[in-house]
Amino acid sequence: MDFLNALVALSNFVLIPAVAYGSQLALGALGVTLIYGILRFSNFAHGDTMAFGTMTVILFTWLFQSWGISLGPLPTALLAIPFGIAATAVLVLATDRVVYRFYRAQKAKPVVFVIVSIGVMFIYNGLTRFVLGADDQRFADGERFIINVREFRELTGLSEGLGIKTTQGITVITAVIVVAVLFWFLNSTRTGKSMRAYSDNEDLALLSGINPERVVMVTWLIVAALITVAGTLYGLDKSYKPFTYFQLLLPIFASAIVGGLGSPLGAIAGGFVIAFSEVGITYAWKKVLGYLLPESLEPSGLVQLLATEYKFAVSFIILVAVLLFRPTGLFRGKSV
Amino acid sequence: MIRVENLHRHFGAFRAVDGASLEIAKGSITGLVGPNGAGKTTLFNVIAGALEPTSGTVIMDGEDITGLPPHELFHKGLLRTFQIAHEFSSMTCRENLMMVPGGQSGERLWNTWVGRKRIAEEERALAAKADEVLEFLTISHLADHPAGAISGGQKKLLELGRTMMVDAKIVFLDEVGAGVNRTLLNTIADTIVRLNAERGYTFCVIEHDMDFIGRICDPVIVMAEGKKLAEGTLDEIKANEAVIEAYLGTGLKNKEALA
């Protein structure tokens, strides 16, 4: 019984939140990795693109709510996602046209692109705050739980409860679908193959008659979709605040780099590595250990390795360790 | 076919191509030779759109193609291969060839979802064509191998194969024979001659192997210090004093005269 209780507590506080968070990071990191693979720079505006995308989803959600449209038990935001993606796609394509294309024509070095993307970051940053403000926004509606703690206790008779939030369920399911479609797209369609070819050897792709502007455009469209979905899922699961999204840049980059920049598979693996480390290290293990250890060994402290406020330090330390010992990441991406 | 007029490409103070003017006749296999650093590869890079010229013009069939990007030149029928073979290393040899030509209907995002049948047909035709090309190049056993894992010489053949996937008008070959064994080199020479005769490809070939040049090229253009130095058959240019000087330096000739 104690073992089961420990398992339930572990699932409730570590496994399920980490899987949901990992899925969100994975989607974010896929965007970073695609931009790195195709456009060959680290996009620092990624976090704020996510904030912008989520903001448009929130605005559309509110619009639909004011019209009385809802999805019943599911959050209305799911209905707003396609519109949010469209708005984000317009924004990133316009940015590419006005800003990045100029530097592509100059054949600017990647470091120039990075600095340019920091400029873009500030603009998006201001844009989001200008439209929606810097405050916390809640936009989740519908059922809150798939299973809630009390029901679970009554059902199983265990003293520990297990709660699965609807948003966590939706996060995982959506992430699986999005990743499946993305991999099918990259591996089986001609457009996806052109993208891989372009990422592999730009000169040769051009000589094969592949239009680079088209490849770049498709990449931005995919990135807009990925980032809007990731941001919306994160916002539903936790809450929406532009500054938090800017901060997510660190774990997202850490995920992409841990997995190996340029490798989509790596981005997903990296997302989960970071999420599990972050949640595991900032979780107070007292309860789980209390169930598992004999009474005499029961810890008196919280057994929390790091306070929650320092969670970003986890990404940072992993990032530094990977860059020192295996700069190409788990899946042998490009070295940074 | 191709007319290059007073072309310059400078890298800072270094003039890699320094006022080159030359013409490549339609249907010819033109050899481009010259000592190392004569500007041959830079000239290729400028013609094929990899580098912008500092000044000067490139005319193809009466049309100014100066500074066009490589993918647009591809669609005009101007192709090139690299001195060091390039390939999509994570794809198989067949897939490598099937990337050519760009601009297939499957590359449009919309068609990916609604035009599946048309794309499938196109892909089938391409796969058949790719197999035919691999057969022609005697490397059909490598069709399903990742292109990153085949030998250097085989990569050169694959490069040549890329140009056979479409009806090219003119193909620029940059040291297609370097690092390739004799037998394979003969295959390549035969392939070039056949493509020239049967499919009307015009070739411009950079090569250091004079036997190879002598076998397939007429005329031969000699470049030195970024300019055209001489043009003629291999025997003519071998007898040209300026050419000997460029290759061997001035000193030697005087010594020979003394001896």
UniProtKB/TrEMBL annotation, chain A:
The lineage of its organism: Bacteria, Pseudomonadati, Pseudomonadota, Alphaproteobacteria, Rhodobacterales. It is a multi-pass membrane protein. This is Branched-chain amino acid ABC transporter permease. One of its GO terms (biological process) is L-alanine transport. Keywords: Amino-acid transport, Cell inner membrane, Cell membrane, Membrane, Transmembrane, Transmembrane helix, Transport. PANTHER family: BRANCHED-CHAIN AMINO ACID TRANSPORT SYSTEM PERMEASE PROTEIN LIVH, HIGH-AFFINITY BRANCHED-CHAIN AMINO ACID TRANSPORT SYSTEM PERMEASE PROTEIN LIVH. Its main location: membrane. It holds the Pfam family BPD_transp_2. The keyword Transmembrane applies. The chain crosses the membrane at residues 20-39, 51-71, 77-99, 111-132, 168-186, 215-236, 305-325. GO terms for cellular component: plasma membrane.
Automatic annotation (TrEMBL), chain B:
It comes from Pseudoponticoccus marisrubri. The keyword Chaperone does not apply. The keyword Magnesium does not apply. One of its GO terms (cellular component) is plasma membrane. Residues 2-250 form the ABC transporter domain. It comes from the Bacteria. GO terms for molecular function: ATP binding; ATP hydrolysis activity. Keywords: ATP-binding, Nucleotide-binding, Transport. This is ABC transporter ATP-binding protein.
